[in-house]
C-alpha cells in the first residue's frame, strides 16, 4: 500500500501529490499515434492512486493530451489540479513571435480543448530567454486571472538563469525545471532563491528520458518518431530535454555505476525519484507514464527507504565523474 505524500505548491497554496503525472506521452509510447483508451486508463489509474495534479501542454499530441485531461477532470469527483502550457505553438519559436494576443488565444484554446472554465496553472512553455525580459508578457496573465480564465501563472524553463529571472515577476508562482541525478545544478542557487520567494518547484524529466530506469543499454534502439532517437543533439528542440543533454553512451556508463550502489534493483526509477524527493524545495515531480505499470513504478518511490550517507555520496561521485564536466554549466 502506497501512502501518498502531499506538498505545498509554493505561493499557490495548493497541496499537490509529491509525485504527480506528466502527460507528454500519456497516449502511448513516444513516436506512436495517440491512443485515447490508453490515455484514459493511465489518467484514471493516476487519480485512483492518489495523484491530484496533472501536467499537460497544448502541443502534446496536437491537443489530444489536453482533451484527455479535460475528460478526466469532468468524469471524476475528486479535485484534480490541471497545469497546462502555452507558447510552443509559435513557429519559428523565437522572441518576436511572442505577443499578448497570440498567448491569450492559446490560453482560450486550451480552455476549449479541456472544456474547463479556468486553468489552475498556466505555464509559459520554455520561451526564448529574451521573453523573460518583457514585462508585458507576464502582465497579460494578471489580466487573464482577473477574467477568471486562469488561477496561477508559472514558467517552464530550460536554464537556471531563466528561472531566476522569471521569479523577479511577483505573479510567477511556480517554476518547472529539469532536475535529476544527472542534472543537479538547480539544487544550488535556484532552489535557495525559490524557497525565499515561496515559488513552487515542479520537476520534469526526472528519469532523464528513461536513462535512469536502468533498463537501457548501448544496444537499445528507439523508433524514428521518438525524440530519444532524433533529438540527441538538439535537432528539434533544446537537447537538454533528451537524456538531460548527456551523451547517450556516457549516460549508460554512469547508470552502470549507479546499479553498483543499489545492487539487486532491476528498476532504478523509484530510486531516482526518491533521490529527488529528499530535496524539500521540490513541490512535486511529474514523471510520465505510457502504461499503468509505470504509474505504479513511479509511486513506489514512496516505499523506498531513505538513502544512507554512503549511498548519497556514491551517487554524487558518479555525477562528478561522468556527468558534471560536460553538462553542469550548460543549464
Set down the secondary structure blueprint.
Elements: E1 6-8, E2 15-17, E3 21-22, H1 36-48, E4 53-55, H2 64-75, E5 81-86, H3 100-114, E6 121-125, H4 135-146, E7 153-156, H5 160-166, E8 172-178, H6 189-197, E9 200-204, H7 227-230, H8 248-261, H9 269-277, E10 284-285, H10 292-299, H11 309-327
Parallel strand pairs: 3-4, 4-5, 5-6, 6-7, 7-8, 8-9, 9-10
Antiparallel strand pairs: 1-2
Helix pairs in contact: 1-2, 8-11
Q: From the helix content, strand content and strand pairing, which structural class follows? A: alpha/beta
Largest sheet: 8 strands, parallel
What integer value in Å does the Rg equal? 19 Å
Percentage of residues in DSSP E strands: 5-15%
- What is the overall pLDDT average? 95
Helix content: 25-40%
Can you offer a commentary on this structure?
With 331 residues, the chain is of the alpha/beta class. The chain has 11 helices and 10 strands. It has helices at 36-48, 64-75, 100-114, 135-146, 160-166, 189-197, 227-230, 248-261, 269-277, 292-299, 309-327, and strands at residues 6-8, 15-17, 21-22, 53-55, 81-86, 121-125, 153-156, 172-178, 200-204, 284-285. An 8-stranded parallel sheet has the order 3-4-5-6-7-8-9-10. A two-stranded antiparallel ribbon has the order 1-2. β1 (6-8) and β2 (15-17) form a beta hairpin. It is globular, with a radius of gyration of 19 Å. The two termini are 37 Å apart. The relative contact order is 0.14.
Brief digest:
The chain is an alpha/beta fold and 331 residues long.
Amino acid at each position: 500500500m502506497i501512502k501518498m505524500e502531499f506538498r505545498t505548491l509554493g505561493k499557490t497554496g495548493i497541496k499537490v501529490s509529491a509525485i504527480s503525472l506528466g502527460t507528454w506521452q500519456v497516449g502511448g509510447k513516444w513516436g506512436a499515434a495517440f491512443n485515447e483508451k490508453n490515455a484514459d486508463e493511465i489518467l484514471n489509474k493516476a487519480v485512483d492512486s492518489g495523484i491530484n495534479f496533472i501536467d499537460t501542454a497544448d502541443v502534446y499530441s496536437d491537443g489530444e493530451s489536453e482533451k484527455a485531461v479535460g475528460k478526466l477532470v469532468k468524469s471524476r469527483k475528486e479535485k484534480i489540479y490541471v497545469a497546462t502550457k502555452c507558447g510552443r505553438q509559435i513557429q519559428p519559436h523565437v522572441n518576436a513571435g511572442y505577443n499578448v494576443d497570440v498567448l491569450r488565444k492559446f490560453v482560450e484554446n486550451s480552455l476549449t480543448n479541456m472544456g474547463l472554465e479556468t486553468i489552475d496553472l498556466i505555464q509559459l512553455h520554455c520561451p526564448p530567454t529574451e521573453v523573460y525580459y518583457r514585462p508585458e508578457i507576464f502582465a497579460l496573465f494578471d489580466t487573464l486571472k482577473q477574467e477568471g480564465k486562469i488561477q496561477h501563472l508559472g514558467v517552464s524553463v530550460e536554464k537556471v538563469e531563466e528561472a531566476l529571472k522569471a521569479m523577479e515577476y511577483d505573479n510567477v508562482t511556480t517554476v518547472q525545471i529539469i532536475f535529476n541525478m544527472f542534472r543537479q545544478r538547480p539544487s544550488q542557487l535556484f532552489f535557495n532563491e525559490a524557497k525565499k520567494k515561496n515559488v513552487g518547484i515542479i520537476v520534469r524529466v526526472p528519469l532523464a528520458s528513461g536513462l535512469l530506469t536502468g533498463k537501457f543499454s548501448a544496444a537499445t534502439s528507439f523508433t524514428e518518431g521518438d525524440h530519444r532517437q532524433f533529438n540527441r543533439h538538439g535537432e528539434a528542440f533544446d537537447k537538454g530535454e533528451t537524456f538531460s543533454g548527456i551523451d547517450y553512451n556516457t549516460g549508460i556508463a554512469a547508470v552502470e555505476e549507479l546499479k553498483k550502489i543499489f545492487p539487486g534493483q532491476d528498476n532504478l526509477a523509484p530510486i531516482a525519484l526518491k533521490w529527488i524527493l529528499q530535496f524539500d524545495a521540490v513541490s512535486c515531480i511529474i514523471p510520465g507514464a505510457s502504461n499503468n505499470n509505470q504509474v505504479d513504478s513511479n509511486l513506489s518511490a514512496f516505499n523506498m527507504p531513505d538513502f544512507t550517507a554512503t549511498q548519497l555520496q556514491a551517487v554524487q561521485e558518479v555525477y562528478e565523474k561522468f556527468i558534471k564536466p560536460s553538462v553542469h554549466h550548460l543549464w
